Amino acid sequence: MESAYLTAVTQVSERHWHALDDDRVVGRGEVSHRPDGRRFLSVDTWQGSVFDRLAEAMLARLPRPLYTVVDEADVDLLSGWERLGFAPRRREWEYVIPTDPQLTGLGPAQLAGVTVLPAGAADEGALGDLYRAVRAEVDATLGWHNMPAEVLSRPDGSPLLDPARFTVAVESGGYVGLARVAPLPRQPRIGLIAVRADRRRRGIARALLAEVLGAAHQRGIPTASADVHQSNHPAIALLEGAGARRAGSNLELVLR
């Protein structure tokens, strides 16, 4: 039962808001700043009226556009944001991928002239050059804002790249492809697989995926996860070709 005595919504820090009912916290709101400069909101409460008051208080203090991400199956949360004027901007399919080569059909990478460096083996400078080149190519086609990968930046705006999270493909001494993995203990998350435009359609992305999944399998991890924009058909084909199954979808909403 919702309380009729909600007394205040208070901003307790630059990023956090609390909803109070007789000095008891009954809801929390947060704004997070993504590396690309966008602001994402989240509200944690089980009361619909508290959600509305918290979100409205946050909207009154924050510049637009504002964003949030919702599990598409969470109808109540989705309708709550839509009530406040948020509208769908993009959808990501969530995939679960087996790591066992017997299930994926992906053996050790064997591409003529291409070497796949495991996570942690890349040179940070060369990795940075590849990342910037890949980002420029994606920006010119899909648009980087449509990619699920989040890479932190230094104060000067340059990417903060941890080689421990990247598997890299090398050809003729140059870096030509990368896979970024968040090494979560139970289910690693593949945030990005990208190959230089002039090196695509040669099996390099498949070789990167084979290395990432094979490394997880050797650690005894049965599955990995990945998020893919609904319009990224090559990435969907790559994952589904390795036995990935669609497990859900997330909607990114925006208020302009």
From TrEMBL:
<keyword id="KW-0012">Acyltransferase</keyword>
<protein>
    <submittedName>
        <fullName>GNAT family N-acetyltransferase</fullName>
    </submittedName>
</protein>
<dbReference type="Pfam" id="PF00583">
    <property type="entry name" value="Acetyltransf_1"/>
</dbReference>
<keyword id="KW-0808">Transferase</keyword>
<dbReference type="InterPro" id="IPR050832">
    <property type="entry name" value="Bact_Acetyltransf"/>
</dbReference>
<feature type="domain" description="N-acetyltransferase">
    <location>
        <begin position="114"/>
        <end position="256"/>
    </location>
</feature>
<dbReference type="InterPro" id="IPR000182">
    <property type="entry name" value="GNAT_dom"/>
</dbReference>
<dbReference type="InterPro" id="IPR016181">
    <property type="entry name" value="Acyl_CoA_acyltransferase"/>
</dbReference>
